[in-house]
Recover the amino acids of this structure.
């Protein structure tokens, strides 16, 4: 299955059962209660597993404890993969705060050191840190997608998301070019969805509800389906 087929099938897939899309949307709406967000992540992971198993219908909302556990596992994988970026961002925020505090102190006490120089030292470091963390997240995201798919393929075994040699071997079988093309297409679709939700946001309350209840769950199911097909292509290409 080429990238065009992966994308077209994945776009159609969520519309096979709008009720389940809306149920997922409800979980997103009440995600401030904490547990529902893990259930939502668990269901998206379930979509990934079902797609890898070759099922054409959206999976049922059942086995809630398993969904919760899977959602927590996915969250842990996110944290581990994004941890370097998170740490760099924290350092950047601290640098910005320190430069502001130092500038305020110099204004109060007076100093021979130029405020612009001090702000440039810490502010420049912070800006560099933010840029580095953004680049890291941009690069690691598709790798993490394959890692989570590998976890799904291995029946939810979390260690499978960190078998880096296995994951990079799978990416080689998929093809780095295909992975990059798929990723670019998803980014473009994300931009379109962002514009759409921005337009819906103009409509008070109703626009926000439609975005969270329909658009956001739809795009997440689409994403899980496309990751599953991309992962499966590794085995097709190796034959």
């Amino acid at each position: 299955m080429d990238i065009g087929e992966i994308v077209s099938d994945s776009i159609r897939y969520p519309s096979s059962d709008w009720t389940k899309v809306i149920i997922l949307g409800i979980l997103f709406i009440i995600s401030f209660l904490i547990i529902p967000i893990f259930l939502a992540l668990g269901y998206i992971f379930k979509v990934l597993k079902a797609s890898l198993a070759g099922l054409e219908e959206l999976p049922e909302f059942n086995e809630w404890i398993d969904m919760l556990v899977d959602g927590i596992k996915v969250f842990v994988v996110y944290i581990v993969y994004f941890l370097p970026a998170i740490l760099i961002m924290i350092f950047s925020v601290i640098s910005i705060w320190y430069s502001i505090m130092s500038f305020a102190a110099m204004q109060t006490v007076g100093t021979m050191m130029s405020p612009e120089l001090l702000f440039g030292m810490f502010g420049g470091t912070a800006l560099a840190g933010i840029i580095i963390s953004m680049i890291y997240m941009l690069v690691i995201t598709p790798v993490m997608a394959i890692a989570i798919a590998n976890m799904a393929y291995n029946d939810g075994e979390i260690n499978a998301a960190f078998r880096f040699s296995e994951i990079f071997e799978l990416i080689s079988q998929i093809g780095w070019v295909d992975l990059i093309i798929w990723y670019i297409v998803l980014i473009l679709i994300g931009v379109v969805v962002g514009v759409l939700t921005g337009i819906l946001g103009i409509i008070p309350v109703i626009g926000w509800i439609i975005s969270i209840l329909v658009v956001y769950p739809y795009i997440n199911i689409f994403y899980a389906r496309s990751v599953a097909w991309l992962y499966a292509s590794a085995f097709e290409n190796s034959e």
The chain has one domain: 3-238. Residues 3-238 form one domain. Residues 64-109 form the longest helix (46 residues).
